[in-house]
Design brief:
Layout lengths: L2 E3 L9 H7 L8 E3 L9 H5 L3 H12 L5 H11 L12 E4 L2 E5 L9 H5 L2 H11 L5 E7 L3 H9 L6 E8 L5 H8 L6 E6 L3 H13 L1 H9 L2 E5 L5 H21 L8 E6 L4 H11 L4 E8 L4 H8 L1 E3 L20 H8 L4 H14 L1 E3 L2 H6 L3 E5 L2 H15 L5 H17 L5 E5 L7 H7 L8 H12 L20 E2 L4 H8 L2
Parallel strand pairs: 4-14, 5-6, 5-8, 6-7, 7-15, 9-10, 9-14, 10-13
Antiparallel strand pairs: 1-2, 3-4, 11-12
Bound molecules: pyridoxal-5'-phosphate.
């Protein structure tokens, strides 16, 4: 199993190199050259624990790792670090199934991959006999940064450097980052939005002079964002797991399709579902949900990706993104692995902020349904669903739920649906409280307490006493100063 670049010009490479590098030399993203089909029956798969499903899926993509190694890493990543005994429970409420991916340390789905990535990355470094330290960069719309800081906290041989938009994350997310522990963690707010942060990180990773200078200091650079293939592969596992749960509960007959409904930003979560289908998970349609930043839903409807629009700050900040990196991997697949075409689209995106796909790529988009929810619609969905079903959704999950109801009304397609619940409602306690009609709390931290009192839903350990934790990171920099910030951090 080798990894190839979506822009078709970089050399094939092994999994360990692809994980260490994060991005290919031709600026493309690494994708597996094939997708092995799972050999086990759904009855067999349904009998496995989460960590065993993860091991099985990863072993298909990571031949450079032994089964013993993968068992050790998945055991550690999906052991007591997760508060739920089943790691990612599938919960039925109303007419949908919620795959709860937020029971990890930082209470959002990023923990599913980022509690494992440090093991894969440090093992890759060992296997490649890499004698340099690794500097892990992350641009974050909130949750990636926190999960990366937690996942790599005090991991020897690594420094983690996170950039977040100063005005573009929730107060809980900001406090989580500013109180990050560990002697190797570094956090800076930037005076800009998520796209500025992501562009800055990609620029640093693509800058050969910068890489040479960092190397002279003893560091190699990589990304913890979902541009790193090491982020996507662990996510494929939870779709296999979810389908096995659907079969186990009798919600579907083995082999019958499900619809996947995913709140999307950088498109890594949904793409992992698409990869799971290639391995044998039966899927009918993909529902891609956005907030008011609806560039993706427009794209799936028209085949035109148009980034010439303002970026709004919303109550679902982890989806406040205009340039969605992982779409590049989908386009590579839909175009029949046409690296030159992908390269041309990405060039157009960079130069004209727009591209348009046609032919079979456009046809391939028909399996996707794009929709979005405004802030008001998100809050209305949270409020009514809680009143009717007693189930509490966070703002991102609620956007997906609203888009699913639109889809149902539009198409009548009642194929059993799995919604990925991507964050704990407590992460966005202010909005969720308001949605439930609770009085305006003094701050987000009081909103957490008030929400817990009202609903009785337990507060995740990672969000308890957040206000009292010592703030360790207070720096704010301009986007142009990101590279200097990184260089100064590398001692
Ligand atoms: C990151 C995130 C998303 C978006 O996921 P992508 O993989 O970037 O599409 C949605 N919801 C929450 C809570 C997130 O943290």
């Amino acid at each position: 199993m080798k990894y190839i670049s979506t822009r078709g010009r970089a050399e094939k490479t092994g999994a360990t190199r692809a994980i260490i590098k994060g991005i290919a030399e031709d600026r493309g993203l690494y994708v597996p050259e094939g997708f092995p089909r799972l050999k086990e029956s759904w009855t067999e798969l349904a009998s496995l624990e989460y960590k065993e499903v993860a091991q099985l899926v990863l072993s298909c993509f990571l031949p450079d790792f032994t089964q013993e190694e993968l068992a050790e890493y998945t055991g550690k990543a999906y052991g007591e670090t997760f508060e739920h005994p089943r790691v990612a429970p599938l919960v039925r409420a109303g007419n949908v199934h919620f795959l709860e991916l937020y029971h990890g340390k930082t209470a959002a789905f990023k923990d599913m991959a980022l509690s494992l990535l440090p093991y894969l990355l440090t093992a890759s470094i060992r296997k490649e006999k890499e004698d340099k330290k690794i500097a892990i960069l992350a641009a974050t719309s909130g949750d990636t940064g926190i999960a990366a800081l937690k996942g790599f906290e005090d991991v020897p041989g690594t420094e983690v450097i996170v950039f977040f938009p100063e005005e573009g994350v929730s107060p809980v997310q900001k406090q989580q980052m500013r109180t990050a522990e560990g002697s190797n963690t570094h956090v800076a707010g930037i005076e800009g939005n998520f796209d500025d942060a992501q562009r800055g990180v990609k620029q640093i990773l693509n800058d050969e002079n910068f890489a040479a200078e960092a190397l002279a200091k003893g560091y190699k650079l990589t990304a913890a964002n979902s541009i790193n293939i090491g982020r996507l592969l662990p996510q494929v596992a939870y779709y296999v797991w979810a389908y096995a749960r659907m079969v186990e509960s009798g919600a579907v007959k083995a082999g019958d399709p499900v619809n996947l409904v995913v709140p999307s930003g950088n498109f890594g979560n949904l793409l992992s579902g698409y990869y799971a289908e290639k391995m044998g998970v039966p899927v009918r349609r993909y529902l891609c949900a956005s907030n008011r930043n609806n560039v993706l839903s427009d794209f799936f409807r028209t085949g035109v990706y148009d980034a010439r629009r303002p970026l709004y700050t919303t109550n679902a900040p982890s989806m406040d993104i205009i340039v969605s990196s992982n779409l590049e991997r989908l386009l590579y697949d839909l175009s029949g692995e046409d690296g030159a075409a992908v390269d041309a689209w990405m060039q157009a995106l960079q130069n004209e902020q727009r591209y348009q796909v046609g032919g079979k790529t456009k046809e391939g988009l028909n399996r996707f349904y794009g929709g979005f929810a405004t802030e008001e619609e998100i809050e209305a969905a949270i409020g009514s669903f809680y009143r009717e079903q007693g189930y509490l959704m966070d703002t991102h999950t609620a956007a997906a739920y609203k888009v699913y109801q639109d889809y149902l009304a539009e198409t009548g397609d009642d194929t059993p649906a799995v919604i990925t619940a991507t964050a704990s409602p407590y992460k966005f306690a202010g909005s969720v409280s308001r949605a439930l009609g609770l009085p305006v709390a003094e701050d987000e931290f009081s909103a957490i307490l008030q929400l817990a009192e009202k609903t009785g839903v337990p507060v995740p350990a990672g969000l308890q006493n957040l206000k009292e934790r010592p703030v360790r990171h207070t720096r704010t920099v301009a986007p142009e100063a990101m590279s200097d910030t990184v260089m100064h951090t590398l001692k």
